[in-house]
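# nightly structure sweep
# worker-07 picked up a monomer target from the shared queue
# config: single-sequence mode, recycle default, output format = structure tokens
# input follows
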Amino acid sequence: MCLNCDAKDTLKGERQFQTKSNSTQSKSMELNEYTVHKMTALCYRKAVATYLIQLNRSSDIPKIMSQFSDLDDFEGDRMPLAVVTNEFNLATYFFQDDYIGLKVFNYIEIESLPFYKGISQCISPLINANIDIPLIVLCRLISRYFKVMTESIEVQLFERKDLIRLEFNPSVPEHVNKHQIDGVIFAVYKIISTFNALKPVELTLAHRQSSQGFELYKQFLGVSAEMSKKANSLTYRIGRTDHTYYSSEHMKNSSGSAFFINPLHNMLDKNFSHTSYTQRCQHILITIMGLNEPTREQVAQVLNMSVSSLQRRLREEDTSFKELLLDVRKNLAHKYLIEQRLSATDTAFLLGYHSNSQFFGAFKSWFEMTPRAYTKLHLGDS
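# output follows
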């Protein structure tokens, strides 16, 4: 017998186990950095119970609920994403249904979610004035503040004058299952449908390996699903008036009929209090760009502070409002022109400029070249 060989094999096995253990621990720590609002988890649990009642399986409710964590075990309003993902996995095993995410989220009480309530408060001036809620406003609020509801999925917004696409990207792909993705897409659809009559024109799914059962998406979301290798997305087609309504001088100067983002931003600050004032200002500016006038007074009002206090805070972080506004405009111009490959006209429109010449003049002062030259520099002749 080769004792040295056995010793080497044992040592090798210990090292492999240690490496695997460290890797698992690292992934667990990474997952625990992401959180979910407790009310999101509670609404999900209620939906599970309601679905069981619909299946005439009320007696099973205590069985599955006993497997869920006690919300009081977690301080504050949030809980680790890892815990919520585990509850989704438990439900998947319990129901043995490949579309349990859609079926359970069909019973989610959207109105009970703090995120939904925040959106309602943001657009309440429009509702009170009997003004149709522009889809772009809803999608901006959803995409910019969705992490208040959950950090499991990042909702990214792609805008054009006639089209809006929402992409749903798992924050930690290996730890977010397909039922969570289905649930988030359905929840966003339900929030939009509550305030706007437009229906999606396209649904693409990258998290599904087979199209079997896709008729359920048509049933629940009113649009046929298509397999995709690129992204999970929900697309709406809109008219130009959806954008221009908020870019008009009337809307900028009519405080009684303008939306505001204070309720959602207050939630964001409360749930993620470590964010710097620089980041908070950038977040607000990106949210309102092209919809409301991006002034320091507007931003200060959202942050519930005076303009002088805002300027002092930014000086302490070695920046200024003027610098932040310029950076946001330049970054959005690059995003629209290069990443989304929009035209200069569309880019000017989305940035809130009232004429192409006004935008072209500003763009040349930023980059010392025209939008066409800038696009050619980064994309060539493609």
